[in-house]
What we know:
Elements lengths: L1 E7 L7 H8 L7 E7 L2 E7 L12 E2 L5 E9 L2 H10 L9 H12 L9 E9 L4 E6 L8 E4 L4 E4 L2 H4 L11 H10 L12 E3 L4 E6 L2 E6 L13 H18 L7 E4 L4 H13 L5 E6 L7 H10 L3 E6 L8 H8 L8 H11 L5 E3 L4 H4 L4 H15 L2 H14 L2 H7 L7 H14 L5 H9 L4 H7 L23 H30 L4 E3 L5 H9 L13 H10 L2 H5 L16 H10 L13 H9 L6 H19 L4
Parallel strand pairs: 13-14, 13-16, 14-15, 16-17
Antiparallel strand pairs: 1-3, 1-9, 2-3, 4-5, 5-6, 6-7, 7-11, 8-9, 8-10, 11-12
Helix pairs in contact: 2-3, 6-19, 6-20, 7-20, 9-24, 10-18, 12-18, 13-15
Amino acid sequence: MCGIFGYVSDKTEIDLLQKMGNALSHRGPDGEGYYSSDRLHMGIKRLAIIDLETGDQPISNEDKSIWIVFNGEIYNYKELTKDLKKEGHVFKTHTDTEVIVHSYEEYGEGFLEKLNGMFAFSLYDEKKRKLIIARDRFGEKPLYYFKDENIFIFASEIKALLQYEGIVRRMNDDALYKYLILRYVPTPQTLFKGIYKLPAAHYIELRPGGFFIKRYWDISFKRIYYNNESEYSEHFNELFEASVKLRMRSDVPLGAYLSSGVDSTSIVKVMSECANHKVTTYSIGCNLPEDESKDARLAAVLLKCDHKELKYDENSLDLLESIIWHMEEPIGDAHIIPTSILAQNVTGDLKVVLLGEGADESLFGYPFHKLIYYEALLRKYLPSYLIDNTLASLFGRTPFQILNIFFPLPTSIGIEGKKKLVNYFANMKTYNIVEKFVRLTSLFQPEEASKLLNHKIDENSIFDNTKLNTEKNGDIDMLMNQMFMIQMNGWLQDNILLRHDKLAMAHSIETRAPFLDHNLVEYLINIPVNMKFGNGSNKYILRNYLAGTFNKKIAYRKKIPFFAPIERFSQTGKFKVLIEKYLNEKDMLNGDIFNKEMISSLIRNNSENDFLVVKKLMSLIIIGIWRKKFNIS
């Protein structure tokens, strides 16, 4: 894990490369290196994980005609090294970085498909004068770029790009609209005007006469049919355990984040079986009814882990300004606070932690998955008019106390939340799958976001890079796979993975996600949906794995959803200070960007018992912090 950076220009920018590197020092405290040739200048700040002695970068091939700076891990580097040596390639290190160089030599542009890992790298072929900048399949490692007529500049973080004085710090108005709805900005845009993200599973090719962005991988949909459940489970078990074991390859100690869920528990179970020492695990809670620490502790005891429990409370709001600085791209969700506390407390103990991200997406673990799945089942067996005319009326008449049972939030669903649900059910017959995802996961509905902004916005598309068959009816398996693709192209890379990378690397920590092994993901997408929703439970095949190899009670217990219960702190002095500081007349309510009355109304309605109102306020506070921290006009 490292920070990479560089630029291509006819003009040598004095000190620019050094300034970019300094801005990324937190990503790589163990070393640095630089390379220049012709118009290209690139560098790296290194966090040493594999081959501590000879793995310094940049690294070249045998005749020094191909050079690379690399951030990430290639988990199958040992197998690739063996294959490449058979073909005559000579290795001078034991690092996974060198494998990429020789794979490019051997396989050409098809080399990216050989790599099983998380990565962002810049590889330069001097003979062909060709630069390749690539990002991993799911976007675990970030890569940003800026391009105008004078320069092409790239880096692992935006802070490095901002060292170039030619970038004017302005807000991307179209991206702001999307942020308000989604809580994040979908690739390829960022909230910084003119700065872009390279999409996951893509690479940039820059050579004389051309700048191209190309996709090198996409999920292959080929349905898998076995005779019975045990055959599906057997193959899943093999793929899952192999993925965890691959991600345990390291020359430094590693541990895991452990929640009460089956995702992280299953990972730690495999780690405990493979490690020759106690696995160090970390959980976080808040001393409130929704705290999952107790259940995580039980799993840690049974797995004989060296377990550490962390806590957050209203005082943790003091971390928010520092967190936004490290995030760079604001994510309008209080989850960023406990995520940062976890990483901060790993520092000094470990350099690498495994986590369960990716399982909720491929195994349909979110509440909105259930809504969409059961709606599809109802439509399969009941007339549509009966469903469409009944659900909105039913939910509209249901008291909050009953709704709260079906929607396990840290506080009441509230007036705003109930209104959102009723509106969804009243109009769901008109929505395609993209619209359903947006409506169910949004903070501000698209109509609200339009009214909140004073400038004209493009309402045509929330997802620029999601191309789907968006038929409203059809096969349930296909429908749920479309939902996964939506999440993969936005939610996962621009929210979940971005949050973990930025906040872990802020403390020089590497995170690894076994559920994002592409072999495992493709298998899960292509097995029947009833292996993911089974016996009234989500993550069916994973729960069966954990029940059969570890503990039935833990496997089938009801998961406490992990929320950062900002609602519990909404009436405290700390939260009110944030409102006064960042949602005031001078900054947010001056009429330039936001509708003054709408924000004032949210502030008046701030209540511990209205989940959605508080989350909307939090997302706006985060924007306010971001504007000040990065001096955005």
